[in-house]
Amino acid sequence: MARQEQVLVLEPQHELKFRGPFTDVVTATLKLTNPTDRNVCFKVKTTAPRRYCVRPNSGIIDAGASVNVSVMLQPFDYDPNEKSKHKFMVQSMLAPYDMTDMEGVWKEAKPEELMDSKLRCAFEMPLENDKTHESESNKTVSSSASSVKTEHSVLPKSASASLDDGEVKKIMEECKRLQMEVQRLREENKQIREDDGLRKRKVTSMAASHSSSMATSAMRDEGLSTRVLAFCVLFFVIGVIIGKLAL
């Protein structure tokens, strides 16, 4: 039984073109479109897997949707006399309605269910006129970019200068304010010290007066006790004399 015709629409249909120079990675884009009302599984294969990197190299395209596949050619030494023999194949099949494992579906697929399309690869080097045009355009772009950079570099300098002047003014005003605040704090500290000295002097005077009064009262008590003792001695002497006279 013959295979089914490819249901996917490929852009480009027959040839992938890679434009040099090939000293760096060169990328070609392959667009896959699913015009059907069924989801379609696809795989992208190549005869030179070490020379290309394909992303994505497999997947599912929803009904009516498209996928862009990036085919990246790795750097190599280009020989214009050597023709490319590399080829790609896009393999597809209708996705089952109850699909859960895509790898399992590919393994169990029957040959008559598979569809494929083949593309060849072509390498192209830019012509000398194209190189000159590209170099001139690159110079124009680089010169415009440098002029833009120069303008941007000049503008920030002037802006930064104005900002510096404004910042200097703010700093000067802040210094003045801080100086005034320090002076005010010094005056308050001086006043507090004076008030504290006055309170200390009052406390000292009050303590001195209290101690003097206590000393006076102590002296008074001492004098009183001395008088009492003298009277007691006197009464004792008188009592002794009276007792002798009575005898």
TrEMBL record:
Its membrane topology: Single-pass type IV membrane protein
Transmembrane segments: 228-246
Predominant localisation class: endoplasmic reticulum
Sequence segments annotated as region (Disordered): 128-160, 188-216
Occurrences of domain MSP (ranges): 7-124
Purpose of the protein: Endoplasmic reticulum (ER)-anchored protein that mediates the formation of contact sites between the ER and endosomes via interaction with FFAT motif-containing proteins such as STARD3 or WDR44. Interacts with STARD3 in a FFAT motif phosphorylation dependent manner. Via interaction with WDR44 participates in neosynthesized protein export. Participates in the endoplasmic reticulum unfolded protein response (UPR) by inducing ERN1/IRE1 activity. Involved in cellular calcium homeostasis regulation.
Name listed for the protein in its UniProt record: VAMP associated protein B and C
Phylogenetic placement of the source organism: Eukaryota, Metazoa, Chordata, Craniata, Vertebrata
